[in-house]
Amino acid sequence: MRRNIYLTGFMGSGKTTIGRELARLFHRDFVDMDDALTKRFKMPITRVFSEKGEDRFRKEESALLKRIAEKEGKIVATGGGIVVRKDNRDLMRESGRLVYLETTLDACRERLGDNEINARPNWRDLESVRTLFERRLPLYEEAEYPVSVDGLSPEKIAEAIATRLFPDERFTVHLGEAECPVLCTWDTPKALAALARGRKSALITDRNVDRLHGERYRRALTPDLALVLRPGEGSKTLTGAKSIYQQLLNNHYDRGHLLVAIGGGMVTDLGAFAASTYKRGMNFMIVSTTLLGCVDAAVGGKAAVNLGQAKNAVGCFTVPEAVVLDALALRTLSRRHIREGLVEAYKTGLIIDPALAVLIETHLSAMMAGDLPLINAAARMSAKAKAEVVGMDFTESGRRAILNFGHTYGHAVEGWHRYKISHGSAVAMGMIVAIKLSAARGLLAGGLSERLLKTVNALRERRVEWPPLEDAWEIMRHDKKIREGRMVFVLLEDIGQPALVHDVTYQELAAVLDKI
Ligand SMILES: NC(=O)c1ccc[n+]([C@@H]2O[C@H](COP(=O)([O-])OP(=O)(O)OC[C@H]3O[C@@H](n4cnc5c(N)ncnc54)[C@H](O)[C@@H]3O)[C@@H](O)[C@H]2O)c1
Description:
Blueprint: E1 4-8, H1 15-26, E2 29-32, H2 33-41, H3 45-52, H4 54-69, E3 74-77, H5 86-95, E4 96-102, H6 105-119, H7 126-140, E5 145-148, H8 154-165, E6 169-175, E7 178-185, H9 188-196, E8 201-206, H10 207-221, E9 225-229, H11 238-250, E10 258-263, H12 265-277, E11 283-288, H13 291-297, E12 302-307, E13 310-317, E14 322-326, H14 335-351, H15 354-368, H16 372-392, H17 407-416, H18 423-440, H19 446-459, H20 469-478, E15 489-494, E16 497-501, H21 506-514
Parallel strand pairs: 1-3, 1-4, 2-3, 4-5, 7-14, 8-9, 8-10, 10-11, 11-14
Antiparallel strand pairs: 6-7, 12-13, 15-16
The protein binds nicotinamide-adenine-dinucleotide.
The site of nicotinamide-adenine-dinucleotide has 30 residues, from helix 10, helix 12, helix 13, strand 13 and helix 14.
């Protein structure tokens, strides 16, 4: 998953500029091999060639490549001639993915500019450069991922590389009798244009999303109406919904028109709620731009608004026309929002998908540092896993209850803090309780529970205080997750094997919490 990415191509194809841009997009380290070799030889490469000979240079270059190949997660701008040696080509393929920046010789010349050309003696004889270019072309073309670069900005090329390396993925979530397609993509504008099919549309988003990404969406949709909300839970109210109804009405929207809610869970919950109730339900789509949105809010067919302090108190089950998980948007998430999403994703991994749990355990620090391909892998796997469970139980009458792993105690923590702490922190604390209860009951092996606790502890915010048990117990007694007066907890027998229990006692909980 974190294999190196090697950019190859002729001199002047833009490897350094594009490499830097790709590293910035993916939040990964960038290595410029020519730069590193210049430093090693303490002279420009042209001088190394003339004073020490090409052979000596190629030897150093291969040695450097070997050192890079031992690492992972690097974006590497290689030298134009690295592909000449078969050993180098093999090593790059084994240790990473090979991207060829496809361009013409004329475009390379233009990109380098007169100053660069004059500084490189081999460019003075254009015919011999052309021969070199043509000789190397088949070697570059061996790369698995060719990407055309001409006429595109470095930013667009980096996005094109992302699309090439991580193609769109589609799956279906079954919501009762209905089916909803879910698309994970790096090219949301293209997906939106295709999904909207030129229909009259209204866009709902919030100010943050609009500022960071709005232009991409507006270009693709050209909506007749764009509603930009104040960010935060304060907008997710009946008053917020009323304002949306009114503007839709003023602008003559009908059920057959399209509402596109683009943002995190707040926007998509409110947008889905407003669309599902406006004129008894108009068409709507969701574009999720937060990790929490992708792993949880977007996939599941639940829409709601808050009623004062009561979160999600008024809502419905509903079916979007489509859900888009916007891979590119996740690049601007704060560390706090990545953490929030990862808590839910790890929860999903623990109850449904062991591979997802392991992915997060293995790469937690890279993910927290914003590694975009990894964050997207977690988003995709998590959404897919949740879709499976939702497909078995759309209206939460059975299987879907396992998604509450960590939520029984988590809600008590959140309630005790009067919702002033993040939901993710509360759920992480709830997961700690559930894992410890599972281990205390002998359901979960000691070694395994320690392993899981290590990850959950790394995900939770340490400063959040544990509530006194009496208070937490009282809150849980009034929680909607108590069925017929019994305390429902989701525990674990193994990763991917949740167990629903209804008989957790106060004493049992006290014994577990005593050890925290
Ligand atoms: N419907 C469901 O099944 C379900 C499930 C879980 C959570 N939820 C709801 O989801 C909400 C929480 O989710 P959330 O954290 O995504 O909410 P959010 O929409 O409030 O987003 C959090 C913050 O991130 C910002 N943001 C959004 N996209 C961004 C991006 N790409 N880059 C930078 N900033 C960005 C937002 O402006 C906001 O400030 C709650 O309202 C919760 O009730 C719903």
